[in-house]
Write a structure and sequence with these properties.
- This protein is of the alpha/beta class.
- The protein has a single domain (6-285), classed as TIM Barrel (Alpha-Beta Barrel), CATH 3.20.20.
- It has twelve helices and ten strands.
- The chain has helices at residues 6-16, 28-41, 51-57, 59-70, 86-95, 109-126, 163-173, 198-208, 222-231, 240-256, 263-266, 268-285, and strands spanning 20-24, 45-49, 76-83, 99-102, 131-136, 145-146, 177-180, 188-189, 212-214, 233-238.
- Helix 2 links the parallel strand 1 (20-24) and strand 2 (45-49).
- The longest helix has 18 residues, at 109-126.
- It is globular, with a radius of gyration of 18 Å.
- The structure holds zinc ion.
């Protein structure tokens, strides 16, 4: 079966002014929640696994899981989310992931470029079809519900990505996708997340010349999502909301069925709760 590549789906999303959802999973429950949502809405989707998430499920095992669905012709892609060393980038390129994020956001501009360029060179030597994403501008590292903004994150003109820096970063590193800091943060803040700088997205997309990825999607309002997509965002990451749905789903299920010991029974409502979150976000990002 001749399936379109992730690069082609992203290009198509840009043309249609929609975005592809990127949803993190830690186990097979999360996997089915995302796959079922994608099947139901007939939309392409990216499954994300951070270093911790893929260590839990297994790097080769999660690749094998995604492959079983791909062979059915479904547009499910696998991304190695925030990867903090070149060695771990090489590991997922060797494993055949569709995309990987080299995260040097806490490092200096120069150090970030060096590790990103090394990752790009490696994938070009192995498989140029794999997409390398990098971010410049720090937005925190959490996927939790936070009382306040994460340490080191201050949303101001100074800490957000500047369009000319984005252009320089992309040019020097050769990346395929760029994740800017535009007021987005990782995690959800109890009193409400900061506002997204829509005009900055437009300027960065123009200057960077590659598709943009919005991280820290949990906690952003529907209206802001629509504006961000219209301004040039092609992929949106959601994690915290799914984690919350899963945990609350399990808690509720255990309380309601205290004598149930079959995991596939008491976990089912939690999978459904994750699927509901994913479907809602996918539909919004696709303009449905
Ligand atoms: Zn992220």
């Amino acid at each position: 079966m001749n399936m379109k590549s992730l690069r082609e789906y992203i290009k198509e999303a840009e043309e249609k002014k929609i975005a592809i959802g990127h949803f993190n999973i830690s186990n097979s429950e999360g996997f089915w929640a995302v796959v079922n949502a994608s099947k139901k809405l007939n939309l392409p989707v990216i499954i994300g696994v951070s270093e911790g998430e893929r260590d839990f499920i297994g790097v080769k095992q999660v690749k094998a899981l995604v492959d079983t669905i791909k062979t059915e012709g479904l547009p499910i892609f696998l991304n190695a989310d925030h990867t903090y060393s070149v060695d771990r980038v090489k590991e997922v390129i060797d494993a055949g992931f569709d995309a990987v994020i080299i995260d040097g956001a806490e490092k200096s501009f120069e150090e970030n470029i060096i590790m990103t360029k090394e990752s790009v060179d490696y994938k070009n030597s192995k498989n140029p079809e794999i997409l390398i994403e990098a971010e410049y501008g720090f937005i925190g590292k959490s996927s939790k519900v936070l009382d306040e903004l994460p340490h080191g994150v201050e949303v101001s003109e100074n800490t957000m990505t500047k369009p000319d820096e984005a252009a320089q970063f992309v040019k020097e590193s050769g990346i395929d996708l760029f994740a800017p800091a535009v007021g987005n943060i990782h995690g959800m803040v109890k009193g409400g997340n900061p506002k997204i700088d829509i005009e900055r997205i437009r300027q960065i997309r123009e200057s960077a010349g590659v598709p943009l990825v919005l991280h820290g999607g949990s906690g952003i309002t529907d209206e802001e999502f629509k504006q961000a997509i219209e301004a040039g965002i092609s992929i949106i990451h959601i994690n915290t909301e799914i984690r919350l749905a899963y945990k609350q789903g399990i808690q509720k299920s255990l309380i309601e069925n205290p004598d149930e010991i079959a995991p596939y029974k008491y976990l089912k409502p939690a999978v459904q709760a994750m699927q509901t979150v994913v479907e809602k976000r996918m539909a919004l990002f696709a303009g449905l």
